[in-house]
Amino acid sequence: MAKSNDIGQDDVSQVVILLDVNPYFWGRKSIESGSSGLTFNQFMQSVVLFVNSILLLNNLNEAAVVAFGTRSCRFVFNSKLQGRNDKLHSSPSSRLLKHIDEFLNTEDALPTSMEQTNINESSLLSGALSLALCYIQRTLKSGQPHPQPRVLCLQCKSDAPQQYVAIMNAVFSAQRSMIPIDTCAVGTEHSAFLQQAAHITGGIYMKPSMPEGIFQYLTVVFATDLHSRRFLQLPRPAGVDFRASCFCHKKTIDMGYICSVCLSIFCKKRSSCSTCGANFSQRQPTSIGLKRKSATITLS
Amino acid sequence: MPKVKFVAQDFMGMVANLPAIKVDILYESHWTCQAVFRSLPPIAKMYVLRLLYIDSVVKGKVIDEWITPEFQSKHRIAIDKLEQLRVLLTSEGGREQSYKLNPRFQKQLRQALASGGVSPRDSLSSSIAIRLPSLAELDSYAMKQWEGVLLQLVSTAFPESAHDVSSDRFVIETFQKAKLLDSGLKLTEAGFQFLLMDTSYQLWQIVREYISSAEDRGINNVELIRFLLELGFHVVGQPYNRDTLTNTEETVLEELKVLGLVQLQQGMKHRWFIPTKLVTNLAISLSEASSRYQSEGFIVVETNFRLYAYTSSKLQIQILRLFARIEYLLPNLTVGTLNRESVQNAFASGISAEQIITFLQQNAHPHVAKRQPSVPETVCDQIRLWETDSKRVKFVPACYYDDFPSKEIFEKVCMFARDRNGLLWEDSSKKIVMVQADLHEEIRSIIRQQSSYKR
Q1: Is B288 near chain A, with CB under 8 Å?
Q2: Is residue B122 within 8 angstroms of chain A, CB to CB?
Q3: What is the pLDDT of residues B308-360, one digit of tens each?
Q4: How far from each other are the two terminal CA atoms of chain A, in whole angstroms?
Q5: Domain count, chain B
Q6: For A242-300, CATH number?
Q7: Taken in order B102, B106, B108, B113, is the CA torsion positive or negative?
Q8: With CB atoms 3.0 to 4.6 Å apart as the test, which of A261, B147, B398, B455 could cross-link to A278 if both were Cys?
C-alpha cells in the first residue's frame, strides 16, 4: 500500500462488502425457523444501514457491494459511481436493493450445466473475493490519493472445500497488498476459511452469537476504520482452525500427504503428484517424497 | 518571540460555544447532525455509532472499557468533544456517571442513516441543462469570485495599483469585523498574514466572521449555521430551485454569491443556485484534519534568491509584492528577488519568516515541488536570519520580588533560581530579583518557610 498516496485524513476508508445471497441458505432458513431468527429482509436492512453509516462517517469514504450466489457474483453497488444515468432523486439504498433484486433474477435465469445439476449449494466466495481485490487494486494503482481499503465478507453458507485453493490464493494476494479482510460468519457454523482469511490478512473474524442483532455487530466491530482499530478494544480470535482441504477429493483433512516439490496436499498416498507431476521414487518406500503433515494447530 | 497567530478555532468550536437551547434547535435538522457527526474525531464517531441504536442509559464504565488502556488520553478527548457539542449527555445516576446520546441528535441521525445519501433538496429538471455551466467553468467562476474578494483586501494595502477593483461594502465590512482591515481601511498585521494562508483557511475565517456578525444584520445565526452546513451536502454543479428558500436563506445566498460559494442563474420561470466546489471545501474544512484543497503551484525559487512566478493573476502578484521585489512583469511570468529590504518590509507588516517559507513551499511549481526541499535551504535560512536580525529582544514571563526581610532569604532565593536556570536578573545591594514566572509557586513557599523559620 503506497502510504504517500493516502488522503490526508486518518479515518478515510474504502469498504468492499461481499454479500452472500445464497438462495438455498435463506430459503431453508425461512422454512426451518419460520419468522424467528434472522430473515433475509432483516439481513438486507442491516446491510443497507451499514453501507449508509460507512458513507456517513466521512464524506470521502467509499463503499462497494459485491453480491454472490451459487453460480455468479457481481457488483451491485458502488458509492463512487453515482451514475448520471441513475436518477439523482433515487437514494443509494434504493439503488442497492434494486440491483440486488436484478442480480437474484439473473442468477435464477442462468443456465445450469449438466454436471452441476447434482446440487452445488455452496456460495461462490472465491469469485467474489477476487472481484473485490481486483477492484481495490485498480484504485490503489490509479496513482491518485485513495482511501484505506478493506474487505468485509459476510458469508452465510458453510465453507465449500472445493474452493479452498482459489480462496487461499486470493487471501494471500490480499496479504501481499496489505488489505485486511474482515469476516463474519452469519450462518450457524464457524467457518475455517473465514478464520484463516482474517488471521492471515490481519482482519477481524467474528461469528455473531445472536444473528438477529447483526446490525449492532456490524456497527460496533466492522464499521471501525483501520486508524481507530489501534485504539479500540475489538474481539480477538479465540482460535483459528487451520485445517486445509486436499487437492484430490477437496475434503477437509486433519492429516495428509504433502508433495515435497510443490506443497500440494493429498489425503491418500500417491505415486506421483497430480499438480506438478513429480514422480515419487518407489525404491525408497520410506517416503522421501511424501511427508506426513499434521495440520491441526490452534492458536490461543 | 511574540507570535501573532490566528486562533485556530473551527466551525464546530463555534457550535460548541452556542447556548444549549440553540444547539438543540440546530439538532432539529438531520443535515446539521450529519455535519456535526462528520466533524468528530474518528474514535468519537465510533462511539456515536455504537450508541446510536441504544435507547437506555449507558454506564460510563462500559464506555471506558472500549478503549485500550494505553490510549486513555484519546478517549478523554473524544468524550469531552462529544459533551461539548451536547451530542453526549451525562447524568449522575447514583454514584456512577452514565451517558446517553442527545435524543434529538439520535433521532435525526437515525433518520439520516435510514434515508442515506440523498441531497437536501431536489435538483431542477434537466430542461435547463443546456444553460448550466460545465464543472470547469464553475470552478473558474468560483476562483474568480474568490480572488475578487481577496483583491479587495489587497488593493487597500496597495492603493496605487487599485484603480480597477470595485469594492463591495459587505465584503469590506466583514474584513473589518475580522480585524483584517482597521477602521481607516488599512491592512492590519492579521490581514497580511491572512493573505499567505491557504484557501480553505481563508474561507473559514471569512465565514466565521460572517456568522458572528449575522445577529447584527438581523439574521438568525442558528438558521445561518444550519443553512451553511446543509449547503455542504448539495451536489456541486447541480441546479437547485431558489423559490423554495426562506427569506433569510435568500439574503444569505446573495452574499455567498459574492464569495463565490454559489452561482445564481435565472430562467423564464425558475431561479436557481448552483453550489461550487468552494462549498464542499467549506464542509471539508469543518473537520479538524482538513484535507487541503490544492491548487496548482506556480513559484520557483532559485538559490540566488530569484523568484519566478508563472502566473498572470493580479492577486498572486500582489501577494508576492508583500515580501519580494518585483522586477519584470511578463504576460504569464513574474520575476522578482527576495532581498533584505523586501523581506524586512514584510516583517514590519507583521508577517513571520515561517509564513513566507510555508507560502513558498505550498505554492511551489510542480517541477520543483518534487524536489526535496522545494525551496532552497540557503534561501530559507537567510529569511530566518533576517527575521532574527529584527528581533533581538526576547520576552519571558517573569516575577519581580523585592522587600526581602533579610539578606539570607534573598540569597537563598537567588541560589534556588540559579540552580533551576530561572534567574533573570538580580541586584544584591537593593535586594531585588527577577525570576521566571513558572518558578513563582516554589519561590513563594521558600520565602514563606524561611520567614516562619526565622520567627
Answers
A1: no
A2: yes
A3: 999 888 888 888 888 899 998 898 899 999 999 999 888 888 888 888 888 88
A4: 29
A5: 4
A6: 3.30.40
A7: positive
A8: A261
